[in-house]
Amino acid sequence: MMALKRPTGEALAALVLARTGYAFKDIRLLETALTHSSAVKAASNNQRLEFLGDRVLGLMVADMLFEKFPDAAEGEIAPRFNALVDARTCSEIGVEMQLEELVRADAALKMRSRGSGGNYLADAVEALIAAVYLDGGIDAARQFVLRYWEARAQTVVTKPPNPKSELQEWLAKIGDARPEYVIENREGPDHQPIFTVSVRVRGLDPAQGTGGSRRAAEEAAATSLLLREGVWANAPA
Question: What is the pTM of this model?
Answer without folding.
Answer: 0.67
